[in-house]
Amino acid sequence: MPGKIVEQMRRFSQAYGKDLAVGGTRWRYYRVGAGPALLWLTGGLRRAAFGYGFMERLAERHTVIAPDYPPARSFGELVAGFEAILCAEGVERYALGGQSYGGLLAQGFLALRPAPVERLILSSSGPADFGMMWLPADYLAVFLARVLPERSVKGLLAGGLMKVVSAPQAEREEWLEAVRETINHDLTRADVVSHFAVAADMIRKRIVRPEAFKGWPPLESSGGWSGRVVVLGAENDPTQGKGDRARYEALFERPIEMVSLGTMGHTAALLDPERYVALLEQALA
């Protein structure tokens, strides 16, 4: 029998889910709420419905659009999908947000399509200024994901994800079970290959670099509305680095606003959706 959290995810998916075909690829995404638009890119589990709790709260004041990720082999395929979803929903200007792996994708999407983005919000993510020295590791991960038994392939993805799940103690095992359920029964080998192949594609093409953001509206051009970069990070998140702020400021060539998640961990939205939304509202205000 599926647990309460899996059932809540299914309920959210049925209530707000939409399907769209883009270049032969089926996209699943969610639209909830009304108000200023936020395109939210989910983390490495690739299924946006994991954020049902915070998205429904955030939707009281904002339109939230959050796609699942299909098993794309290149970052360009994801860009085409994001743009098609925004077009289908009639969204011309929006805030762009990303959590964890989604923060990597958000930085790449902003680099290629900066004009419509009013601000960038990165949560439990790091600067995507990866040098070419990271490419062999990603290529190795892609190779292993293609040749290992599928159970081992999924373990390759699950190994890191399971370690950083922060959730209320009373619900932690149920959240972990929802993660296992998704990895074992929803994601495929192609999803795991995509996870690493897209990152490798971004590195190889040097998509995220300071030059890419020079045309993005500077703060002084619009009274601080456009061009803001807000980073949400927790003290106890093992994926955060002490030098991240300096790297972000060098990458975007502008001041970075830091919002503390305290000790809410890597998946703060699962641990305390209400508090997390309050901090997101601060970033969006």
Q: Radius of gyration from the CA trace?
A: 18 Å
Oligomer: single chain
N-to-C span: 41 Å
Count of DSSP-assigned helices? 11
Average of the residue pLDDT scores: 92
Can you describe what's shown?
The protein is an alpha/beta fold and 285 residues long. It has a single domain (4-129, 207-284), classed as Alpha/Beta hydrolase fold, catalytic domain (Rossmann fold), CATH 3.40.50.1820. It is 45% helix and 16% strand. The protein contains eleven helices and eight strands. β3 (37-41), α2 (52-58) and β4 form a beta-alpha-beta unit. The mean pLDDT is 92.
List the helices and strands and how they pair.
Blueprint: H1 4-16, E1 17-22, E2 25-32, E3 37-41, H2 52-58, E4 63-67, H3 75-88, E5 94-99, H4 101-112, E6 117-123, H5 135-147, H6 150-163, H7 172-185, H8 189-204, E7 228-233, H9 244-252, E8 257-260, H10 268-271, H11 273-284
Parallel strand pairs: 3-4, 3-5, 5-6, 6-7, 7-8
Antiparallel strand pairs: 1-2, 2-4
Structure in a nutshell:
The protein has 285 residues and is of the alpha/beta class. The chain is built from eleven helices and eight strands.
Characteristics:
8 strands; Rossmann fold; alpha/beta; 11 helices; 285 residues; 8-stranded mixed sheet
